[in-house]
Amino acid sequence: MPLSASLARGVAPATPGTLHARTVTGELSAPPRHGLTVRFGRGEKPDVDLGVGVDDLRVSRRHGELTYLQGHWWLRNTGQQLVRLPRGRMMHLTTEPIPLTTGYTPLFVKGSGYREHLVELYVSGHDDQGPVSRRHAETVRPETWSLDDDERLLLVVLGQRYLLYEEEPRPLTYRQAAERLAYLRPEGKWNERKIEFRVEAVRRRLHGTGFKYQLLHDKSEGRPVDNSLLQNLIKGLVESTTLVPPDLELMEDEADWPDSVL
């Protein structure tokens, strides 16, 4: 059933399960009616209910749809380009539909070049009436994580490229970090083994605290052969502003460092 037909029947969009959708070119609300489908893409009505990427030929005229079935809104990619969801999840034309959870879900339609077109989705729960304006409310501060002085210095050294906001940064190796720490804090007796132990201790402490990224490997997968968990740790600390660019001052002036540790 198309959205226009449902709205024409006068269903109030305020019950739990109501879908609210918004792009830069429009917005709509749709009631949780079995079989109802909301379509979005570059095209015009009646082919789509919500326009997205209307000036981008990489976006399909009917790029995606949401259908209400079995108590959920199910998202399906019907376009030629990928759709990106939170946590890096991608949907292709052949991907099985996925159900939306209650609350806010952003999705991005891949476009031309580096363009990505945002579609904001919100599914009302039993205790709300959808997204509301909070322009005058106090700003919620980012959730940061506690680090002791040694941990902060270690992670700043390992993650200095992240704090410089370089493109596609990578952590320093434990060997490189040990050389720099030996110069900065010789009394700390830093070496690769100690660094590995301290990093693992931080990962274990933050695991299960709501940290954004995975910090521990599944033991059934065996010992990891990459440093993805270290990247997750540093990336999450930087994105949460637990580590910030002024922390680079802990490394003092690298111009005075000997060439052997640069």
UniProtKB/TrEMBL annotation:
Segments forming domain FHA: 38-90
Xref: PROSITE patterns: FHA_DOMAIN
InterPro entries (alphabetical): FHA_dom (IPR000253), SMAD_FHA_dom_sf (IPR008984)
Keywords: Phosphoprotein
UniProt protein name: FHA domain-containing protein
Organism: Streptomyces shaanxiensis
